[in-house]
Amino acid sequence: MLRASLARLSSQAANAARPSYRVPTASLMPAGPVEEAIVAKLEALLKPTFLEVRNDSSKHAGHAAMRAQGGGSGETHFAVTAVSEVFEGQRHIQRHKLVNTALREELERPGGVHALSLRLKTPREAEAEAAQAGGQ
After folding, report:
1. d(CA 40, CA 37)
2. Could you say which residues of the chain have pLDDT below 50?
3. Residue 59: its pLDDT value, please?
C-alpha cells in the first residue's frame, strides 16, 4: 500500500501546487479525537504533499502495557508517513524531534499515545523511493 501511495505521489510530482493528500485510516472506525489532533497539527506544521496517519491501536489492545492502563483510549499506537519540503536539509533525528515536539501533548497525556512510528521524507526522497520500487 505504501509503495502504491508513493508511486501515486511520484506521478503527481510535476504539479508543485498540489494540496496536502491525506490517506483515510485503514480502520473501519471513524477517526477519534487523538488521530484528528495528530492530523491537524502535522498538516499545519508540515504542509505535507502526502500524509498518512494510521491508527494501529487495535493490534496492541491485548498487550500487557495496554491492559495495565485499562486499554488506553483506543488511540494509543499510530504510524505516520509524511512527505514535506520542511524536511529538506534535516537529518532523520531532526525530523523526528520536530514531529515529536509538535505532538508532545498527545505523547505525554496519561493513557495517550504509547507508540508513534514515523516515516518522514522529503519530496525528492519519496520520488526516488517510488522510482526504485517501480523498477523492482
Report:
1. 5
2. 1-20, 25-26, 71
3. 77
Could you tell me if 58 and 32 are in contact, meaning their C-beta atoms sit under 8 angstroms apart?
no
Q: How far is CA 2 from the centre of its chain?
A: 12
Q: At what angle do helices 2-11 and 123-134 cross, to 10 degrees?
A: 110
CB atoms within 10 A of CB 46: 22
C-alpha cell at 44: 499545519
Query: 50-55 and 22-23 as β-strands: parallel, antiparallel, unpaired?
Result: parallel
Handedness of CA 104, 37, 26, 91 (dihedral sign): negative
DSSP character at residue 61: T
- pLDDT at residue number 39: 97
The pTM for the full model equals 0.73
